[in-house]
Amino acid sequence: MRHSKKIQLMNLSELEIGESGTITAFTDQHMSIKLMEMGCLPGEEVRLDQIAPLGDPIAITVSGYKLSLRKTEAATILLKSN
């Protein structure tokens, strides 16, 4: 008998500070090009480092550097939780 592990996907905008995940896909094709140019590639691990006092933007670590994103941009990135 095989036990299949259910993979739970979430948006990057749903992470709490200090949490991380692995990029699996994007929900907006136009935005995905911009994000991939900034290093947000499928298979890359991202960690949420900071949230601005008013909740937007957020700061993440991806591909070895810090990146600031609007929550609307982060919401288009689907992650597999780590």
Automatic annotation (TrEMBL):
Pfam families per UniProt: FeoA
Location of the Ferrous iron transporter FeoA-like domain: 10-81
SUPFAM superfamilies: C-terminal domain of transcriptional repressors
Keywords: Iron
GO molecular function (one): transition metal ion binding
Protein name: Ferrous iron transport protein A
Organism: Solitalea koreensis
Lineage: Bacteria, Pseudomonadati, Bacteroidota, Sphingobacteriia, Sphingobacteriales
